[in-house]
Each structure stands twice: as C-alpha cells, then as structure tokens.
## 1
Amino acid sequence: MKIRADIAELLRAGHRDNAISKQLGVCPKTVARHRAALGLPKDPPGRTSHTSLEDAWRAHTEPTDDGHLLWTGTINNGVPTVRHKGRRHSAYLIAYRIGRGRDPQGRCRPDCDRAGCVKPSHVDDGPGRARTRNTLAAIFGQGAAE
Ligand SMILES: [Zn+2]
C-alpha cells in the first residue's frame, strides 16, 4: 500500500485514529491500516492520548524551503496557539522552550522577517531581542539596529 505522508506524520505525532480521520477527511480504516503498516501501537480505546505538548506543537509546523518553520495550526489574536489538555499555549513560547530549554522572559516573537514563523532558533523573548539590538548597535553604531 501507499503510505500517505500526512497520515504518517499525524500518527507519529501521537494522534488518535478518529482524530486523524476527521482532520484529514479519510476513512478511519485507512488510518488504522497506516498505523499497522508503520508498526505503531494501536491507541487504547477510551483513553486520552499521551501526546506531549511538544508533539502537539510539532504536528502543526511545516518547514519552508528557505529555512523557516511555519505554523499551520490555530492563530488566536495574531498568536499561533496550540491546544493541549484543554489549555491554550503560545506556539512561540513552546518554540522558545524547545530552542533554549528554559522559559522565556517576557513575550516571545519570531526575530526573522517571516510572519508566523515558529522555528525555535528564530523565536526570541524580550531580553533576547534587546541583546540582539545591543550587539548590532555595538558593531554598526547606534541606530543601525532600529
Ligand atoms: Zn523564521
């Protein structure tokens, strides 16, 4: 059988069969066949998935040819948002945690010029952005980084 990349990706991200079939508009049996073909364990009926927040985040990202990572999930008030266990999280914040291994100080935003980019190395918090500006100012003179 031919493996569909979108189904395989969601399965690997830990999504449940019926969630995937609903999201992609495919038959649950097709999803189950993919699961078997990929050698992934069946999800136990009636139990919530063990998808981690990071996996949930990853399932909504899409790399671009020019090195960014675009958010394909929900945007809430202009902020990419991922729902996990009934709570909403900023996708920028999760990207920052993945990239730095710690919580950001202040609001996170992409520092690149690509709107909606959630690439961990492109997302910075307030102090991080100020550091970048100061470094640029030190190299090129005041005002260069404005
Ligand atoms: Zn970027």
## 2
Amino acid sequence: MLSVAVVGAGGFGGALCAGIVHGHPSLELTAVTARSDAGRRHDEVYPRYAVPLTLEEPDADRIAERADAALVAYPHRAAAQAVRDLRERGLKVVDLSADFRLSQEAYERWYQPHEAPELLGEAVYGLPELGHREEIRGAELVAGPGCNSTAALLALWPLRDIARDAVVDIKTGVSGAGREATSDTHFVSVADNVNPYKTEGHRHVAELQQELPDGIRLSFVPHLLPIDQGLMASCYVTADGEPSREDVQALFEDAYRDEHFVDVIADPPRTGDVRATNRARVHATLDEGGRVLAFAAIDNLWKGAAGQAVQDLNLMLGLPEQEGLE
Ligand SMILES: NC(=O)c1ccc[n+]([C@@H]2O[C@H](COP(=O)([O-])OP(=O)(O)OC[C@H]3O[C@@H](n4cnc5c(N)ncnc54)[C@H](OP(=O)(O)O)[C@@H]3O)[C@@H](O)[C@H]2O)c1
C-alpha cells in the first residue's frame, strides 16, 4: 500500500480527496490536515465520506514521516508554500489549486507574484485526456486543472484544429466556490437565481489559452446556478472549413474513443448524470447556421477537482488510472 496525506481536508475539495483515497484499494490514507477543524474527526465534519481519521494541524515533517504522496487542496498562494514544503521532503504532490497550472508569466498576470516559481519547471498540467498522460506518469508534481477549464477543454479539445472563435458558456454549482459562504454564494443570493460573474475575464481562460493552439478567439462567461455539485460547459464555436455534423461527431469519437472517463454521447449531457462520478459526458453537433455546439458536463468536485487529482495520482504512482474512482 502506498501512503497518502490530504492537506486541506476540511475544505470541499480536500474532504472528497480524503474520501476517495480512504476507499482506494491500493492507497492508505495516513494523514488529513486542517486548521479550523483540527482535532475533530473527518467523519464528524463530513459524515458522507466516512473517513475515520482525526484532522490534524498541518506539519510537513509529520506528514513526510507517514506519507509517500500528498494531495494539497488549499486556495492558490497558500498552496504554493505547502507544496514546496512537501516537495522538499520528497513527497509526490498533486496540487488542486491554480499555483502550478500556468507559466510564471501567465500566473502573475492573472493571480499574483508566485510564491514558489522554482517548482514550475517540474509541474505538469493534470488533464490526462489532453495528451498529458505520459508526462503525468513521470511527474513528481502535478497541477490539477480548474473545474471550469476541465469541462471547457474537454468540449473544445477535439475542435482545436478547426476552431476559429469560441464562446465558452459555463454553468457551475456553488460548491465550486469552496466551503466558506460569501455574499455572492450565500443561499439567498443563489437560490432561484442565475448569476453571471467575472464576465470581463475569468482566470480559467488562461488555462484554455495555454492548452489550445494560438489564434482561437475565446470568450469565457461563467454563471453560478442554484445547484451544489455539477458543471456544464456549453461552447459555441465558429469553425473553419464548414464541417458537417458527422465530421464534428467523428472528431469527438476519435479524440475520446480510448478515454475511460469521457463518454461521447448522442444527446446533450446533463449535470445530474455525472454527479459524484469522475466522468465527463460530452456531445457535439451543428446548429442551423453551421455553428458547432459542444457540451461537456462534469461534477466540479470529482472530474473538476478531487477525482481528477486521484486519477493523476494513480498515473504518478504507476497504478491503473481508474482505480478507486469507480
Ligand atoms: N471546489 C471546486 O469545485 C474546485 C475545483 C477545482 C479546483 N479547486 C481548487 O481546489 C482548492 C481547494 O478548493 P476548495 O473548494 O476545497 O476550497 P475550500 O472549501 O475553501 O477549502 C480550502 C481549505 O484550505 C484551508 N486553508 C489553508 N490555508 C488557507 C488560507 N491561507 N486561506 C484559506 N484557507 C486555507 C482551509 O481550511 P483551514 O482553514 O481549516 O486550514 C479550507 O478549508 C482551491 O485552490 C480551488 O481553487 C476547487
């Protein structure tokens, strides 16, 4: 058994990481950390994940004594420091935050000065389905992609050679914003409501610019919906070469034929059908005007965060990619 720690296991993403690792047949969950809930049992804070461990204050030395690898589920910036402490002690790390997804230049444009730029060279972008699988297998540090970016990229990846212009319309559940409620994510703000946000530039567009070929004009418009878990990327794409509906569908079949976690389906997907799974359901078609419509539905906490992090960890540790995720 390989031993794994989850750092930030009191937050939404980290709590699910702990739940998945605890149920994993080849991994042993040896430490779960939190500051505000330190001293409480994880299964008291999150009964549904049934993790019978006590949350402890984060301490890199104590974690390194007990773990070969760690999943770090901190907000960006705080994550960089925690990842550095764990990498200095030789642990393999999957970081769920934005801190290691981008080049230093792109990161500092969208976020803030980087806290651990010396680690960027070894970090691999953790979306296996986008051609990163072999790099992830050899990596010591993997950056879990953003939830919006995961869905948008899975919808756009098969179209990358023909897309000229794409409007990415994201609809996301409130758990994507983390455990702490704000005035924007409070029940009263979200219930019976649809809230577009960050319409003039969401940070996740930087991941699309990085992963897709240059020259695709991108608009990225997220909407917060009154659902707790679930995320839909609806992409409206102007394509070169007037492809037929069959051409477009063939691109999706070719891209994902061998992908265990991506289902290419004949009708538009629904978020409820991927809830609490590591699956993405994708669909593409043409509208009457010849525009390509591409959809991807994921669970933001699973394929958009914790599930994908364990998928990456499986690859890094030489385990079957889907182990512990079914
Ligand atoms: N939620 C999603 O759908 C999703 C999807 C993809 C990626 N992510 C990324 O995954 C990471 C974790 O997200 P989450 O949704 O799990 O967030 P969360 O629910 O807010 O949890 C983050 C945890 O980090 C701990 N923490 C440590 N240092 C902190 C600091 N300086 N400031 C605030 N909190 C600190 C907090 O617990 P203590 O205070 O007890 O230590 C908190 O519980 C984030 O980087 C997020 O962007 C989230």
